Amino acid sequence: MKAIVMNEFGGSDVLRYIDCPKPTISEGEVLIRTSFTSVNYADIKNRTGNKAKANFPMILGLDVAGVIEEVFGDNSAFQKGDQVIAFPKSGAYAEYVIAKEQLVFKVPSNVPFEKVAAVPTVSFLSYILTHQIAPISQHDAVLIHAASGGVGTMLIQMARKLGAKQIIGTVSNLEKATIVEQLGADHVLIYDQFSNHVNKLTDGRGVDIVFDSIAGAITEESLACLAPYGTLVQFGNSGGRAGNIKTSDLHSSCRNIKGFSLGTTRASKPEMLQQVAQDIFTLLKEESFHVPIAKVFSLEEMQKVHDFMESRQHQGKILIKI
């Protein structure tokens, strides 16, 4: 089979398009023939060594959409030919992948396959953030950082469906504002002094919920526009630096900070994902729920794909057709 393999950390040139043996499954696993995989910012961090441990040769990628090729034994919940999305065991940039059955989800026939293929990671993540980690109510003003990216575009739509009173998105430049507004944001800001603008838009009160995947200075400034009793949800550090938070900024204002990792949840609480899968499929079959796709590439173009993602010029998801 063809796969993208890396043998060292580094720039996009460490990604090699080569022939590999087709993997073999064990009990509780399925073999999937990949149709699509998506690219997530975690792939960049893993490639550069900022997140992954050195375990070479390595195949990157968090999620796939494809067709069941083989099951183990007679008691599998799946059968050959089932269309599924999955979080693979050892990377997704390959024509065939292995996944544990707990992390495989059968796609209903009335859900557009390419639509769901673009968003396994970001849809599960966004749903859990908005429904379980920091449930959004009709009284909430919400701030969503990186609003034009894969997770951001999902968060905006989920916040709108849940009836958020006010939705504010931040982007790196206002060329990205159109897609954020089209998906349901009331206001779009750039990062420069965003807390001042947020406070003006909320009549000095601040927002009730902040969804932050950037960390660093963005997390620190977010506290300047978080309302009393508000919640800041920290679920990534694409900015590459941890934010410094004073405990005195929390207890006296009754505000709180929550953290969430989909990777940790896949490893230690996969049952959480099974619980929300059907709700996600219900959302995705609605024509009004959009999955913006920035661009579709082939597997052999993966170096170009990583360069494109690192340029931060894309809006929506980057999809790989295999």
What does this structure look like?
The protein has eleven helices and 15 strands. It is an alpha/beta fold. The protein folds into two domains: 2-118 and 291-321, Alpha-Beta Complex (Quinone Oxidoreductase, Chain A, domain 1); 123-263, NAD(P)-binding Rossmann-like Domain (Rossmann fold, 3-Layer(aba) Sandwich). The strands form three sheets. Strands 3, 4, 5, 6, 7, 14 and 15 form a seven-stranded mixed beta sheet that branches. The chain has a six-stranded parallel beta sheet with strand order 10-9-8-11-12-13, sandwiched between helices. The protein has a two-stranded antiparallel ribbon with strand order 1-2. The model has no long low-confidence stretch (mean pLDDT 94).
Descriptive labels:
29% helix, single chain, 15 strands, Rossmann fold, globular, 2 domains, 26% strand, Quinone Oxidoreductase, Chain A, domain 1, 322 residues, 11 helices, seven-stranded mixed sheet, alpha/beta, six-stranded parallel sheet
CATH homologous superfamily descriptor of the largest domain: Medium-chain alcohol dehydrogenases, catalytic domain
The biggest sheet, with number of strands, parallel, antiparallel or mixed sense and barrel status, is: 7 strands, mixed
Which structural class do you get from the secondary structure elements? alpha/beta
Total count of strands: 15
- Shape descriptor reads globular
SSE series: EEEHEEEEHHEHEHEHEHEHEHHEHE
**Percent helix range:** 25-40%
Q: Looking at CATH, which topology of the largest domain would you report?
A: Quinone Oxidoreductase, Chain A, domain 1
Question: Mean of residue pLDDT?
Answer: 94
Number of helical elements: 11
User: How many separate domains?
Assistant: 2
Radius of gyration (Å): 20 Å
Low-confidence stretches: none
CATH architecture of the largest domain: Alpha-Beta Complex
What's the CATH first level of the largest domain?
A: Alpha Beta
- Terminal CA distance: 11 Å
Beta-strand content: 25-35%
Oligomer: single chain
Keywords: NADP, Oxidoreductase
Organism: Lysinibacillus irui
InterPro entries: ADH-like_C (IPR013149), ADH-like_N (IPR013154), ER (IPR020843), GroES-like_sf (IPR011032), NAD(P)-bd_dom_sf (IPR036291)
Protein name: Zinc-binding dehydrogenase
